[in-house]
C-alpha cells in the first residue's frame, strides 16, 4: 500500500515539475540610487483589506535583498524619512526571477525601475577623440 502511494506521489511531482507556467524562485533587490535616504514600505492585501508592513530606511547607495520562492507582484510605497514623510513613489513591482530594482530620480520625480531596463536605456557617453599631434622632424 505505501509503495503504490509513493509511486503516485512521485508521478504527480514529475507531472507538475516541468510545467511551463510555474514561476521561478529568485532574489528581489532594491537599490537606492538617489542622494538622499528614503523609507520603503510594502503593502499587502489580507482578507480584502490593505495592510502596511514594517517600513525600513535605505541610505544612499544601500541595497536590500529578499528571497521569494516564486515570481509575483508587490505594492511598494517610497517616502521621505520623518514622521510625516512625503510620498515619493507608489506602485506595483513585478518580477519573475532574480531582479534588481533601482530607486532613482528622473526630472524631479522618483521612479522604481528594473535595473536591466535602466541600463538598456542609458545612452553611452560619446567621447570625441582628438587626432594625435603630428611630430615635426628636427
List the helices and strands and how they pair.
Layout: H1 2-16, E1 26-32, E2 38-46, E3 49-52, E4 56-58, E5 63-68, E6 72-79, E7 87-95, E8 99-106, E9 109-114, H2 115-121
Parallel strand pairs: 1-8
Antiparallel strand pairs: 1-5, 2-3, 2-4, 2-6, 6-7, 8-9
Largest sheet: 5 strands, antiparallel
Rg value: 24 Å
Count the strands?
9
Spatial gap, N to C terminus: 100 Å
Explain how this protein is built:
The chain is built from 2 helices and 9 strands. The chain is of the alpha+beta class and about 140 residues long. The protein has a domain at about 25-115: Sandwich (Immunoglobulin-like), CATH 2.60.40.180. The longest helix has 15 residues, at about 1-15. Mean pLDDT is about 75; it is low at about 20.
Question: What are its keywords?
Answer:
alpha+beta, 9 strands, 2 helices, Immunoglobulin-like, 138 residues
